[in-house]
Write a structure and sequence with these properties.
Strand content: 5-15%
Number of strands: 10
Structural class: alpha+beta
Number of helices: 20
Largest sheet: 5 strands, mixed
């Protein structure tokens, strides 16, 4: 089963998704001083590295190599890597060897051409022959050296069953909620408790990522990459892999956003079902997925086109303001941050008002499904408002209410804040209460001038108190309006927070 997954991975992986696994394979095979050099000035070089003092330059392709590909792409890039000696200060420009890495196979005519090309390099250019890692080499290194010997043998029966079950569910095209993928990726942090080993998160994420993408589970693939980023934050490989994983995230956001922005409209409200779901549930779910992906894209990479797309979705698609459960707390948070960062204040105010109306209406009846609820539980909770016989859980508080109120406080609009706070307080769903000891603390969001209270008789008023948001763990030394800091606190650590790791991330140059 796993061997087939490895084969499928190599057949379908893109270069940008392959880079972080390749760096790991180089490290585990004794290469050091590894630098990713792919870019506009790479001069044919994708990586440079050393082994036993010998310098190597890597040329990487994610495809099969036939005669045409060899003549038009591979040979010219190798020649450029050999003849144009510059490109990186760690490169020994007088003596190095080229390594060609391909996730595919080199067919017979191309093999013959490669042999002749190596002879030309030795006799005419006085260069060393090209070293080759192809499909069969990579299968051996991924499966035998890491999966079989390093990962599978060290997993317990329960851990193996979870991995096999996740693979099988993806292959059967079953729906996976983001928190199921996120929960599995959390195991990688546990596996790396010694802060050293990267085999489990790097290899497993690579294989699962391609499975998710091959089965059109694009949003799940993004959540998986975020889980990988969290895992490497807890290891010694943080500095080496951060940019490679972020580059993979950028690729997925680039391909995701255009698709996610339009697919909510493509459903068509005239259709009664989407798959096996009523349009009543499928439509807002798709809208919510679209705005979260688009908001993350804008927050991470600051592209104005993504902000415009987000604004268009919020203005035209009512489903964006109808979160189906508390699971969409993160969606609301990221969307609010994106609008705040983009200075779309009036749209953010309208969005918060619409969310408040929806949330209060729901909690005036049976409420929303809890954080961590499955899709089935989301549906049953909403249907139980109208139909008897469906299970529902009556929540006494709403994490999303805290997020809405915190976003409202960002805007420092006294009337909006009071309206939202009073509506949320009226249905008793504000999670925790704070007394503000100084009025200015409300607007500076200074935790030092507030004290926590669980007094059930406490009346929430603008000048006396406000809800404590779930992101209170943001370090007091950091400004709460630091958008990137707040974003990472939720997208990397949805229910737990590790300030020191986030601090490391933010102090590096981007």
């Amino acid at each position: 089963m796993i061997r087939n997954v490895v084969d499928d991975y190599l057949h379908s992986v893109t270069e940008r998704d392959f880079y972080y696994l390749l760096q790991f394979l180089l490290e585990s095979n004794g290469y050091d001083d590894i630098h990713f050099t792919h870019g506009n000035v790479e001069m044919g070089k994708d990586f440079i590295c050393k082994k036993h003092g010998e310098q190597f330059v890597l040329v990487v392709k994610a495809k099969d190599v036939n005669q045409e590909t060899f003549r038009r792409e591979v040979r010219p890039q190798i020649l450029q890597a050999i003849t144009e000696r510059g490109g990186h200060p760690n490169l020994n420009s007088t003596s190095y060897r080229v390594m060609f890495v391909t996730t595919g196979r080199i067919n017979s005519p191309a093999q013959t051409s490669f042999t002749e090309f190596n002879r030309y390099l030795r006799t005419k250019l006085n260069e060393k022959p090209v070293k080759i890692w192809d499909f069969d080499t990579l299968v051996k290194k991924i499966y035998l050296e890491h999966l079989e010997n390093d990962i599978l043998r060290n997993k317990s029966a329960l851990e193996l069953s979870r991995l096999y079950a996740l693979i099988a569910r993806i292959q059967r095209d079953e729906d996976l909620d983001w928190f199921e993928i996120e929960e599995y990726s959390r195991l990688w942090v546990i596996a790396n408790a010694d802060h050293q080993h990267l085999s489990v998160p790097i290899v497993e994420s690579s294989l699962l990522l391609r499975l998710l993408m091959d089965h059109k589970k694009r949003y799940g693939a993004l959540v998986l990459l975020v889980g990988l980023l969290r895992a490497i934050c807890s290891t010694s490989g943080f500095f080496a892999y951060r940019h490679l994983v972020l580059d993979a995230i950028r690729e997925h956001l680039d391909t995701l956003s255009d698709e996610e922005v339009t697919f909510a409209k493509e459903i068509g409200l005239h259709k009664g079902f989407v798959g096996d779901e009523f349009i009543f549930f499928a439509y807002p779910r798709r809208c919510l997925s679209a705005i979260e992906v688009t908001a993350v894209s804008y927050l991470l990479f600051g592209e104005d086109s993504r902000l415009s797309a987000l604004c268009e979705l919020l203005a035209c698609e009512p489903g964006c303001s109808k979160p189906l459960s508390e699971n969409y707390m993160v969606t609301v948070w990221l969307t609010g941050l994106a609008l705040h960062k983009g200075r779309r204040v009036e749209l953010l105010k309208k969005y918060l008002v619409n969310l408040t109306v929806w949330l209060c209406d729901r909690y005036d009846q049976v409420g929303l499904a809890r954080l961590g609820a499955t899709r089935q539980q989301e549906v049953e909770q909403l249907l139980s408002e109208y139909l008897s016989g469906f299970d529902f859980a009556k929540n006494v508080s709403s994490p999303m209410a805290s997020v809405i109120l915190f976003l409202a406080s960002y805007l420092q609009d006294r009337d909006l804040y009071a309206d939202v706070a009073n509506d949320l307080r009226a249905v008793d769903i504000i999670l925790e209460y704070h007394h503000v000891l100084e009025v200015q603390g409300l607007y500076s969001l200074d935790w030092k001038v507030s004290s926590q209270s669980f007094d059930p008789d406490f009346t929430l008023e603008l000048t006396e108190g406000y809800s404590r948001p779930l992101v209170f763990e943001l370090e007091q030394s950091k400004r709460p309006d630091d958008v990137q800091y707040a974003l990472l606190s939720l997208i990397l650590f949805r229910d737990r927070f590790y300030p020191s790791l986030i601090e490391r991330f933010l102090t590096l140059d981007h």
